[in-house]
Each structure stands twice: as structure tokens, then as C-alpha cells.
Design brief:
By secondary structure, this protein is α/β, with parallel strands linked by helices. It contains 10 helices and 13 strands.
């Protein structure tokens, strides 16, 4: 049975052919470290790393590429930013739709004396902007939030929130795990001070590579979470003050960066608008096909029914069969691969009214087709009737 992959919100698959080819070439023909070896091979790899920083800074209008820092993923990035920036006695606002990549570091910080409040969202996951004004306290230091929900695909208004932060003298920290590579993000225009990204979703790189970008004025405000050898100023045991070494100790994931470089090149050639339009066309087709199943009492669509301010992520609850059983049958009997459960986002599910049961999530990517959508709809109809 041919498989149909509809779990792109977890990680995009397949990757462009150039991505595994680039990783293989590095592992078999280059393989050296940067910032250590003083030979041509190391300099060649360093050039790829530098170009990748440039491409990311350009993609997000993030300013100087030296302020692009590589980590393993968006989770590590958020841990570095939040734990390095927030201090006991500070107050931070988060959205009610956050992933545990944001909330677990926040909860750790809460135990150390940092306060937080959740900005309310409606049952479709839309942020209630009008509540912001009354939530700022004298000790509020930042707003930290995702760009789009990994559960229901709702896009949060980071442009408007960024403007609010600028007006009120707050720092703005954004998690763009679900939107990087499929939506336009402009750090300057959106007043984003720290942007955390992951490489293996919309940026089409391999797992295990991510990073963050800092505005210049944020650099000295964040204490490094990790420290160690950087290959620079090795005569001292103090952490380098300059970027990106300040936040990049130890051996880098160079195979991951090389793969991300290839993914970014493919993304640039293909075009973000083209990718987004394709994914939303599939989403619209899927939502249209789900409507009669919902009217028949077989399932419930979670979140928005339309494609305005959303990504290619759709969650449902099945009403005639237990969720995990339905997801199992979709895969086992029809080859439809989805994700079922709480998606590491209990706060979002509480907001959407789907806690503690969770949802089945379908998430569309560049390589999915209209035939994939129709196949998933047909399978759902057969399983739930």
C-alpha cells in the first residue's frame, strides 16, 4: 500500500533531493570542523555556514548575519533566549495557544520567581488583541508567543503585537516553528527582538538543526545558557562577548547546517508565496470535504473553517470512533499518516476545548496533492460511518 504523508507540521517530508545530497557530500567528501582547522577544507565548510547565516538573515530581514545563532531546534533556541533574558521578579506575557517548547521553560522560570500570564484566545485560536492593554504590569518585560498554532493552524497577529511591544517598551520574542518558509516574516517591520526558528519544517532542512536571530540591542541582555570551546579567543576561559560565538559553544551540527543551506536554496528558487498558495489550496479542499462529514455528525472541525490567517494544518475530533483508533485505522488500512493526541500543546487544547482528548491533525506540504486530500477524505468517511 502506498503511504500518504500528512504530518508536515511535525517535520516536512520528503525533503528536496538537494538536501540529503548535500549532507551526504559533506559526510563523505568534506567532514571537517570549522573554527578549528586551518586548511582549505575547513574554510570551504565555513563559507557554507556563513552563506546559511546570510540566507536566514535575509529571509527574516534580521539584520547582520553574525546575529544568526545555530542550535539543535526551536526548543533549544527558546530555552536559551527565555532563560538568559528573564530574571526573578520579571513578568512575561504568552499566548493561550503556546506549545510546550515555550511553556515548559516558562514554567521552570516561574519556579525561580518569574511571573507570567496568558493572553486570551477565542475558541478558534485567534488572539484577543483588545486584552493586551490591561495585562501589562510595571514589571512586564516581554511578550513571548508563537506565530501560528501547531494544533489548528491559526496564525497569530505578530505584526500588531510587535507594534504594541514597541509602543509599550517591551521586548518581543517569537517562535516561528510553524511559519518559517511558508509565511513572510520581517523582524524589522514586526518589531521582533528575538526570533526562534527550526530547520526541519518549512525551511526543509534535516532534523537537529535550528537557531535564533537577535536584534543587536538584545545580545547583551541575554546571558548564555551554554558555554565551552568555540575555536576563538582560546587564550581565555571567559565566554566570548561577540557574535555568534557568544551563543555557539562546542562542535556545531555541520551536516545539519549544510542540509539547511540546501533547503534554503531550494526555498529561494521555488518561492514562499508559491508554497503557501499550494498548501492553502489543499487545506481549502480538505475543509470543504470535511464539511458534509461534520454535518452528518461524524466529526468536528477544530479551529477556523476558512483559510484566512491560517497555515496548512487542520485538526478534527472524530465523534463515532475513539481518536487513536481512527488514526490507527487511517494508517493501517489506508496508508494515511497523521498525528493524534495533544501535540505537545495542552494550553492550546484547553483554549480550543479539546483537552484532554486531543485531536487528529492533518498537515499539508509542498509534495502533497489534491489526490492525497481526496484519499484522506474518503478514508475518513469509510472509517467513521
Amino acid at each position: 500500500m502506498e503511504k500518504c504523508y500528512l504530518d508536515n507540521a511535525s517535520t516536512t517530508f520528503p525533503k528536496p533531493e538537494a538536501v540529503p545530497q548535500a549532507v551526504y557530500h559533506y559526510m563523505t567528501s568534506q567532514g571537517c570542523n570549522i573554527n578549528r582547522g586551518c586548511y582549505d577544507g575547513a574554510y570551504d565548510v565555513e563559507e557554507i555556514v556563513f552563506e546559511t547565516r546570510q540566507m536566514l538573515a535575509g529571509l527574516f530581514n534580521g539584520g547582520d548575519c553574525k546575529n544568526v545563532v545555530f542550535t539543535k531546534n526551536v526548543t533549544e533556541s527558546l530555552n536559551v533566549i527565555l532563560k538568559g533574558f528573564l530574571q526573578p521578579g520579571d513578568h512575561v506575557l504568552v499566548s493561550a495557544m503556546e506549545h510546550n517548547a515555550m511553556m515548559r521553560p516558562i514554567r521552570q522560570l516561574e519556579a525561580a520567581g518569574v511571573e507570567f500570564d496568558r493572553i486570551p484566545c477565542d475558541p478558534e485560536g485567534c488572539l484577543k488583541l483588545e486584552t493586551l492593554e490591561g495585562m501589562v504590569k510595571p514589571n512586564t518585560k516581554a511578550i513571548a508567543m508563537m506565530h501560528a498554532s501547531n494544533v489548528c493552524g491559526t496564525v497569530l497577529p505578530i505584526g500588531a503585537v510587535g507594534e504594541f511591544c514597541k509602543t509599550h517598551g517591551l521586548r518581543f520574542i517569537v517562535d516561528c516553528a510553524q511559519t518559517a518558509g511558508v509565511m513572510d516574516i520581517d523582524m524589522e517591520a514586526m518589531h521582533i527582538d528575538a526570533l526562534a526558528f527550526t530547520g526541519h519544517k518549512g525551511l526543509l532542512g534535516p532534523q537537529g538543526i535550528g537557531g535564533f536571530i537577535l536584534k543587536e540591542e538584545m545580545i547583551g541582555l541575554i546571558d548564555p545558557l551554554l558555554s565551552g570551546g568555540t575555536g576563538s579567543i582560546s587564550h581565555t576561559e571567559q565566554i566570548p562577548a561577540f557574535m555568534p560565538d557568544r551563543f555557539e559553544p562546542g562542535t556545531m551540527n555541520l551536516p545539519g547546517i549544510v542540509g539547511l543551506h540546501a533547503g534554503l536554496q531550494w526555498l529561494e528558487e521555488t518561492g514562499i508565496d508559491k508554497i503557501r498558495d499550494h498548501e492553502l489550496a489543499l487545506t481549502a479542499r480538505f475543509l470543504e470535504g470535511l464539511a458534509p462529514l461534520e454535518s452528518s455528525g461524524l466529526l468536528k472541525i477544530i479551529g477556523k473553517r476558512g483559510c484566512v490567517d491560517r497555515t496548512g494544518v487542520v485538526s478534527i475530533q472524530t465523534l463515532t470512533k475513539e481518536l487513536s483508533q481512527a488514526a490507527f485505522e487511517l494508517d493501517a488500512d489506508y496508508g494515511i499518516m497523521t498525528r493524534v493526541g495533544l501535540h505537545c500543546a495542552p494550553s492550546a487544547h484547553m483554549t480550543l476545548g479539546t483537552f484532554p482528548t486531543g485531536t487528529i491533525r492533518f498537515s499539508f506540504g509542498w509534495w502533497n496533492t489534491a489526490e492525497d486530500v481526496d484519499r484522506a477524505l474518503a478514508a475518513l468517511g469509510e472509517i467513521l460511518r
